[in-house]
Amino acid sequence: MDLKYYSNPAGDQTRQPRREGMFKNFDATELFCQKCKQAVPVRKRLLIVLPDGDKYEYLCAYCASSVGTKIERNQKPLTIIV
Fold first, then answer.
1. Which is more confidently placed, 81 or 47?
2. Would residue 66 count as lying in a domain?
3. Domain range for 44
4. What is d(CA 7, CA 16) in angstroms, rounded to the nearest whole number?
């Protein structure tokens, strides 16, 4: 892991590691459901495969209504050979 350092905002000369890219991809475990009127566990379902990434939909674990979407971008550019 490549660590970069930055100075403390208070002017302190202590060096603290800054980890870039540590939180690039999050997966939701609970989201608010309008139908259930509360935060509920969710299931992630693949909707479509796009050239720049995959689009997912989050579904309520209780009533199966859609509570959100997410696009996971590809790490490498997609090469299409025609």
1. 47
2. yes
3. 25-74
4. 7
Report if residue 16 sits inside a domain. no
CA–CA gap between residue 77 and residue 82 (Å, rounded): 16
Residue 18 pLDDT:
61
Q: What is the pTM of this model?
A: 0.63
Task: Say how far apart CA 22 and CA 16 lie, in whole Å.
Answer: 15
Quick one: tokens of 48?
Answer: 């479509």
How many separate domains does the chain show? 1
From the CB of residue 32, how many other CB atoms can be counted at a distance below 10 Å? 13
Q: What is residue 14's three-state secondary structure?
A: coil
Residue 30 belongs to a domain: yes
